[in-house]
Amino acid sequence: MSHGLEILYEDNHIIAVNKTNHDLVQKDSTGDISLDQKVKLYIKEKYNKPGDVFLGVTHRLDRPVSGVVLFARTSKALTRLNEMFRQGDMNKEYWAIVKTKPPKIEDTLVHYMLKNTKQNKSYCYNQEKPGSKMAKLNYKIIGQSDRYFLLSIRLFTGRHHQIRSQLASIGCPVKGDLKYNFPRSNPDGGISLHSRKIEFTHPVKKELLIISADTPSEEPLWKQFS
Hints:
By secondary structure, the chain is α+β, with helices and mostly antiparallel strands. 15% of the residues lie in helices and 34% in strands.
């Protein structure tokens, strides 16, 4: 039983899945079954494990975002992966579809971000504000359809709603992202932001791992760029 999961990589130490744009990574106040709960159930059944299954959440994707999510299956792997994320030793690539062509074909964006917890939204500023955190990413136009542009994004920091907020601040909100001023929602309720690839050194085996996730099949627009 895969419990509707698309498993991208699995060994005794880590497991990576392709998250849909409906899944919560971790349980919240909605009470909906979360991705980590599904993965725990999958491991429990596959390996016939008694009692509670250990599963460590190493990073999160916003609910309407799809793509690679990496979990730790041991506390040792979790500690090491957490440290790698903290040190910036995880090379993550995201893909985003935008309607407005960015000002440059490729650019590095640096902003100072403030999170508004009440609105669950982050705001970008060109100058430092009290309590703000520096946010940095690189984007590159890698595809174009009749009406949209496909961007490849590399994150240098991991701020709340960073890609969504930074792209919106240059007038290029992600397709379907009403929260950041895209005019219409996507039919499936998600947004056109996808965690495409993660590249890192295995926390135990010490070998290079590159894990990629296919774009959501329910959104045919992705295929126009391939």
